[in-house]
Amino acid sequence: MGEGQGEPWLKYEKRPLPRGFTHPLGQSEVRDALTAAGVFVGRFGRSGSHGQNWWDMEAVALHAHRYGDDVARAWGPHDPVEQVGLAVPGCPSELKPQVRAALLGAGLPRAIEWLAGLRDRGDGWLTTTHRFEVLWRNGTLTFEKDQSHPSLWRTETQGPGLTWRLMP
Q1: Is 85 helix (H, G, I), strand (E, B) or coil?
Q2: Domains of the chain: which residue ranges?
Q3: Tens digit of pLDDT for each residue in 82-100?
Q4: Of 75, 79, 77, 103, which Cα lies nearest the Cα of 89?
Q5: Angstrom distance (rounded) from CA 155 to CA 149
C-alpha cells in the first residue's frame, strides 16, 4: 500500500537508528491500534533516538501532537489532518522488551485516546499546539498532556509505576 492508501495515516516515515537502538513498536502494531480506534493521523513516524538518555534521565518513548492553527497557517495552505501526528522514537535494544510491553499495555492506548479526543475540542483549543508525551523514567512510563500549557497539568498515579499528568 502507498502512503495514505488504506492506512490510518497520510504519511509514514521511518528513520535509521544508531547502533544498539531499535524501534520498540512495529508499523503493523500501530496501524492495528489506530484502525481499531477509528483514528487517522497526518503523519506517523518511527523516528530516531534523539540522543536521549534512557538510563539516567527521562526519554520520550512515544508522542502525539496537534499543531495549532497558528503554526499551520505559517506553513501556508494545508490539509488540517496534517496537523496531527504520532511518533515512536527508537530505544536501546536491551530495553526493547520492557519499553514495548509498557507502550502496548498503556502508552499507545493512552496516546490514541488523546488523539481520538481531538475531535471534540473547540476552536479555541485548536488554535494552539498541544502534545501528549509518553516518557520513560527509571523503568516506568509517565504520561504528560498538553505541553503548551504546563501550568494546567495535574499529576495522578494510576497503578504501580504509572503516573499521568492531565489537563483539567
Answers
A1: strand
A2: 9-166
A3: 789 999 999 999 999 999 9
A4: 103
A5: 14
